[in-house]
Write the structure tokens for this entry.
Amino acid sequence: MKFRDLRAQYDHLKERIDANILEVLHSTAFIGGRQVTELEETLAKYVGVKYCISCANGTDALQLVLMAWGVGEGDAVFVPDFTFFATAGCASIVGATPVFVDVDPRTFNIDVEDLEKKIAETINLGVLTPKVIIPVDLFGLPADYPSIERIAKQYDLKVLEDGAQGFGGNINGQIACSFGDAAITSFFPAKPLGCYGDGGAMFTNDTELAVNLHSLKAQGRSPEDKYDNRAIGMNSRLDTLQAAILLVKFEEFVENEIDASNRIASEYTSRLHDIITTPIIPEGYYSSWAQYTIILPDEKTRDGLKEHLQSKGIPSMIYYPRGMHQQSAYEDMKVADSSLPITSRMTKCVLSLPMHPYLTSDDIEKVCIAVRQFFKGV
């Protein structure tokens, strides 16, 4: 059994993917081919925004938006403490300071009460200028954007949606990557919509921002003259082969995969909710299920279950074993675990089960039986 079975997906899509790859090979338009533009237009329409600007990966996407907004030294960027490092790292790369916010124990997403508290604390200290909130759609579930956008408006902050894991989710029909002032996603292979390498994209309705992002991702070059660089940018392109692959995978994602993942998640929950804490999807929310993450009572139980599953040939993963404030890169900030209690607890209690659209009924049965056996001591 695979944690995320990319081979099963390829076998299912092989004929269409191979044909698209061959088309690129014959065209030799490996950079900036028509498939890149087609993908951007397709994704923008799906998400429901004016512009999709592709780039090399999700981390670059975060950094590019912050660069375009002029975020830098002396600025505070509010990020959830329980997430992948890139969400905080992008702020540090541009010279800003990440401010770590605790998460909601029910959804794993940024806690809006702690967010407002950390913004007020930052203002009162007077050392940093609050500039941006980067909520993360963790494990596929969109963050609480109605509340986040209200807070952002109150404090005059930008909102950058980190939809690296959330592409395909929605809130009352509004698709992930359409929230806030701008959004990003990642096409890392294991993401809900993944390519066969690295890739990312940025989304916005802001025309000026879109123009700046196109420039910054191409070394800061002028739209009128590619040999006139008007800013210091970076080299961050989605290549044509990846775009061609994503066009096939996107069609399958929309038509079948996201619904299949939700059916599998529902099956897990119905079979396991009585013995463990299973994921909660608030009313009106729809997840793309990048991961299916359960909560165990303590670290010993979590590690014991992980070992038991492995003995049965079932892979599992710990997302995440440490919070942002516990990373070595941020140890000089000396942020205490007590200031981020939910994250500090979650790092010891979470475990993600196999989740992908190609899990079979037998796979689901095997996982659920193994989990129940562990708790019954069989």
Notes: The chain has a mean pLDDT of 97. The radius of gyration is 21 Å.
